[in-house]
Specification:
It is a single chain. The chain is α/β, with parallel strands linked by helices and 301 residues long. It contains twelve helices and ten strands. It has a five-stranded parallel β-sheet, sandwiched between helices. Strand 4, helix 8 and strand 5 form a beta-alpha-beta unit. Helix 2 packs antiparallel against helix 3.
Length: 301
């Protein structure tokens, strides 16, 4: 359901950063509402006034409330929710909990798999497992028929980055989950960009592990990907990000080291990345587009 202009205005009023920058880097980290630093400082004040260990009980209650909320969002039980220091740490912990890898074991991944996840797989490859990339369909998404043709008893894991960090693609996570369930193959979904953008129902997805991030799109825009990757002729993506930041406009930029398999397959060195959220206004979008038009005539590589 679309948000009304009044609702968006209230949300922006509760987000201090909206008065300072045009923020289009929600895929990296969204602007927090004032409630976030208030909650953090409140816990620090309880520690200062009562003692850290004594204040821990209040912190534990807040964490349990967050666990209950996360379970409702993901359609699962609170006991299935774990909070970690980062998404990469969470994915690595889940991967390391799998049984020991043996020569001939197979790991199937989408071409857009996040580099941090690939790095976690290195010990399995060193033990003799094979890392295999699932072919893409004509739109660049993971091909479900191609995946089905690859499945056998040696496949020990299917790993999918649902919405890649370097483009607006949405991979067919639920269809892949149906195959994984039929074959009883563990299925990991990296939902770092999906959580808060698209419905994340772990029962419908048939996944064994879903990893997400609280700082990104949980305030997200609706049912389509709000991530736009692009290049501007004559500009390096990182240099473009820095120049726009000097103008009070935040965007992201990704290089080969973020999604290496896909970036190399597409011949891309780096990309600039706009990530929209619900509190971006038409005026902010026009400001961004005007800046890009000006920079297009002032090439810098």
């Amino acid at each position: 359901m679309p948000l009304s202009p009044d609702h968006i205005a209230r949300l922006r009023a509760a987000t201090p950063g909206c008065t300072r920058v045009c923020h289009f880097n929600h895929a990296g980290g969204s602007l927090p509402s004032q409630g976030t630093p208030d909650a953090m400082s409140g816990q620090l004040q309880r520690e200062a006034h009562s003692g850290p260990m004594e204040a821990a009980g209040a912190g534990a209650q807040l964490q349990e409330q967050a666990r209950q909320t996360a379970a409702r969002v993901l359609n699962t039980c609170p006991q299935a929710i774990a909070f970690t220091s980062s998404g990469s740490a969470a994915w690595g912990m889940a991967f390391n909990a799998l049984p020991a890898w043996q020569p001939g074991d197979r790991i199937l991944v989408g071409r857009q798999e996040w580099a941090g996840n690939l790095a976690c797989m290195a010990p399995a490859v060193a033990a003799g497992a094979r890392l295999e990339v699932i072919p893409c369909d004509s739109h660049g998404a993971v091909s479900v028929p191609a995946l089905e043709s690859m499945l056998d008893s040696r496949v020990r894991l299917i790993a999918l980055t649902w919405l890649p960090a370097n483009g607006g693609l949405i991979n067919p996570a639920a269809a892949i989950g149906q195959l994984a369930r039929q074959w009883r193959i563990p299925y990991f979904i990296d939902a770092g960009q999906a959580l808060g953008q698209v419905p994340c129902d772990v029962q419908a997805l048939n996944c064994d592990v879903l990893k997400g991030a609280g700082r990104k799109y949980l305030r997200g825009p609706g049912q389509q990907s709000g991530l736009i990757a692009f290049t501007l002729e004559g500009w390096d993506g990182l240099a473009l990000k820095e120049e726009l930041a000097r103008r009070g406009i935040n965007i992201g930029a990704n290089g080969v080291n973020y999604t290496p398999l896909d970036m190399q397959a597409r011949g891309l060195g780096n990309i600039a990345r706009i990530a929209l959220s619900y509190f971006n206004t038409q005026e902010e979008i026009e400001r961004l587009l005007q800046a890009l038009e000006e920079l297009a005539g002032n090439k810098r590589s």
